[in-house]
Specification:
mainly beta; OM_autotransptr_brl_dom; Lipocalin; four-stranded antiparallel β-sheet; signal; Autotransporte_beta_dom_sf; Autotransporter domain-containing protein; 2 helices
C-alpha cells in the first residue's frame, strides 16, 4: 500500500485515541503530513509473536482500511480483532514506521499489532474455527514467519486395565500343595525310622508312636507364606519269614492326625484345619552288614475346612497324596559302631479335588508328579546293650515341576516349590525290658532356596517284641 492523503488523514485523526501503543500523542503535527519520509518516521516497537488481545476503551470511530484483497480490521465491543495476515494500518498508533523495518514482505509503511482473535475476513480459509463466530475461521499460524504455534494439549493417558484383586484365601491355596508334599514325606520318614528300629532284632514287632511337628512355607515373593502344626499317632507292625536270620522283612502301619494351617496376609487371616489318615509300608532287605535295600510306599488322605476371619467358612477341601521310592546303601559294622552311606530316589503325587467356594468361585489344581533324589549317611552307636544312638544327614533335590492353580477369574497361578533342602535327624532308644523298648527321634529339614518348606518333627513311642 502507498501513502495517500486519505491514509494520513485517518492516521492523524486516530492519534488522540488510546489503544495498543504506549505513546498517546502524535509524533508530528498535521502540518507535517505532506513531508513524511523515512527520516521522520518513528521506530516501531519490538515485534510481538503469538496470539494476544488487549482491552481498550470504546472507540467512537470504526476505522477500516482495506487492502486490495478486501481484508480489514473490525471493532467488536471493546476489542479490536484482526488476523496475522493483516499488514496494514493501526489507527491507534502514534505515527508511521520506517520503510526499512517493515513487518513481513509488505510494501506499505505502517506498522501494526498482530491480533489473533475474532478474525473476520469474509473469506473461506483452511484455518481454525472461531468459537464465537462459527461461520468464520482463524488462520493457521505459520512458524516460518515467526508466528506462535499453539499445540493442542496431549490426550489423557489411557487408563490401565482393571486388575483383579486376589481373594484373601489365595495365599492359602498357593501354599497348600507344598505343605501336603512335606507332610506326606514326613510321615513316610517317621514310619521308615520306626520300621528300621524294629528290624534290628529277629522278632516280630508291634509299635505305637505319637508324632508332632510344624512347617513353615516361604514363597519367592513373600506374598503366600504360611505355617502349620500337626500331631497324631502311628501304629505299625513288622513281619519276617520263619527262616532264621532272614534279611527280608515287611512292615506296615497306619497313622491318623490333624493339621492346622495358618496364612496371615494384609487381607486377613485364613485357617485350614484338616484331618489326616493314611497307610505306609516298607519292604526291606536288611542284613547286619553289606548291602541294604528298602522300598517305601505311602498313601495319605486329607479332608478339612478353610475359614477366613471376616468371611467365615470359605470352602471344604479334600486331597490325596502318595509316594513310592527306593533306598540303597552299604552298612559297615565295627563293634558298637556302624556306618552306612546311602542314595535314594522317589516320586510323589498329589491330587486336590476341585471344589467350589461359598461365593460360587471354582477352584482347580493342576498338579504334576514330583521327583526327588537324595544322598546321605547314617551312623549308629550302641554304647550299652540297652541303649542305642544314631544320626542321619541327607541332601534332597526335588524336580520342582510346574504346578498351577485356577481360582475364580484368576487362571494359571504358578505354585512354587523348593528344589534343594537338607535334612538332619537323630534318635535315642532305651530297652526297658527284653520285649519292650522306648525311643525318640527328632528331625529338622531346612530349605536351601526360596520358595520352600522348612519343618521339624518329633516322634516318640514304644515298641513291643513277641
Amino acid at each position: 500500500m502507498k501513502l495517500t492523503p486519505l491514509t494520513l488523514v485517518i492516521s492523524t485523526f486516530c492519534y488522540s485515541l488510546p489503544a495498543f501503543a504506549d505513546e498517546r500523542y502524535p509524533a508530528f503535527s498535521t502540518s507535517q503530513n505532506n513531508n513524511v519520509n523515512a527520516a521522520n518516521i518513528p521506530h516501531p516497537p519490538e515485534a510481538f509473536h503469538g496470539p494476544s488481545t488487549q482491552e481498550i476503551p470504546e472507540l467512537p470511530l470504526m476505522a477500516q482500511v482495506s487492502r486490495q484483497t478486501g481484508e480489514g480490521i473490525k471493532q467488536l465491543g471493546k476489542m479490536i480483532a484482526r488476523g496475522s495476515w493483516f499488514d496494514e494500518i493501526n489507527p491507534a498508533t502514534s505515527g508511521l514506521v520506517r520503510s526499512s523495518v517493515l513487518a513481513g514482505n509488505n510494501s506499505h509503511h505502517l506498522w501494526y499489532y498482530r491480533l489473533q482473535t475474532m478474525v473476520l475476513t469474509g473469506e473461506k480459509d483452511e484455518g481454525l474455527p472461531n468459537i464465537n463466530n462459527p461461520g468464520v475461521v482463524a488462520p493457521i499460524p505459520d512458524p516460518g514467519k515467526g508466528e506462535a504455534v499453539i499445540l493442542p494439549p496431549p490426550p489423557p493417558p489411557e487408563p490401565e486395565p482393571p486388575q483383579l484383586a486376589p481373594a484373601p484365601q489365595i495365599p492359602t491355596y498357593l501354599a497348600l500343595p507344598n505343605m501336603l508334599y512335606a507332610l506326606n514325606d514326613t510321615m513316610q520318614t517317621r514310619f521308615h525310622f520306626a520300621a528300621r528300629q524294629m528290624s534290628l532284632d529277629d522278632h516280630h514287632n508291634l509299635f505305637v508312636y505319637g508324632y508332632s511337628g510344624g512347617e513353615r512355607y516361604r514363597s519367592a515373593q513373600g506374598d503366600s507364606d504360611a505355617t502349620s502344626r500337626y500331631q497324631g499317632w502311628m501304629l505299625g507292625a513288622r513281619w519276617t519269614p520263619e527262616a532264621e536270620q532272614s534279611p527280608l522283612a515287611f512292615s506296615a502301619g497306619v497313622h491318623k492326625g490333624v493339621m492346622t494351617m495358618l496364612s496371615d496376609t494384609p487381607a486377613g487371616r485364613s485357617q485350614l484345619r484338616m484331618q489326616t489318615q493314611g497307610i505306609n509300608a516298607l519292604i526291606g532287605i536288611q542284613p547286619p552288614e553289606g548291602w541294604q535295600l528298602k522300598i517305601p510306599l505311602g498313601l495319605t488322605h486329607y479332608r478339612g475346612t478353610l475359614r477366613h476371619e471376616t468371611q467365615g467358612e470359605v470352602a471344604r477341601i479334600s486331597a490325596v497324596s502318595g509316594n513310592i521310592g527306593a533306598e540303597a546303601g552299604w552298612r559297615w559294622q565295627q563293634d558298637a559302631h556302624s556306618l552306612m552311606p546311602l542314595a535314594a530316589a522317589g516320586v510323589q503325587w498329589l491330587h486336590i479335588a476341585d471344589f467350589t467356594e461359598q461365593q460360587d468361585a471354582q477352584v482347580d489344581y493342576q498338579l504334576a508328579p514330583q521327583f526327588s533324589l537324595a544322598g546321605g549317611v547314617k551312623y549308629d552307636y550302641q554304647p550299652l546293650s540297652s541303649v542305642k544312638l544314631g544320626l542321619e544327614a541327607r541332601y534332597v533335590w526335588h524336580s520342582g515341576r510346574q504346578n498351577t492353580l485356577d481360582a475364580g477369574d484368576m487362571r494359571g497361578l504358578p505354585i512354587e516349590r523348593a528344589r534343594h533342602s537338607a535334612q538332619l535327624g537323630g534318635y535315642v532308644s532305651w530297652q526297658l525290658h527284653e520285649n519292650v523298648e522306648i525311643g525318640t527321634q527328632l528331625q529338622v529339614q531346612q530349605r536351601l532356596d526360596r520358595p520352600g518348606v522348612s519343618d521339624w518333627n518329633v516322634l516318640s513311642g514304644v515298641k513291643v517284641a513277641f
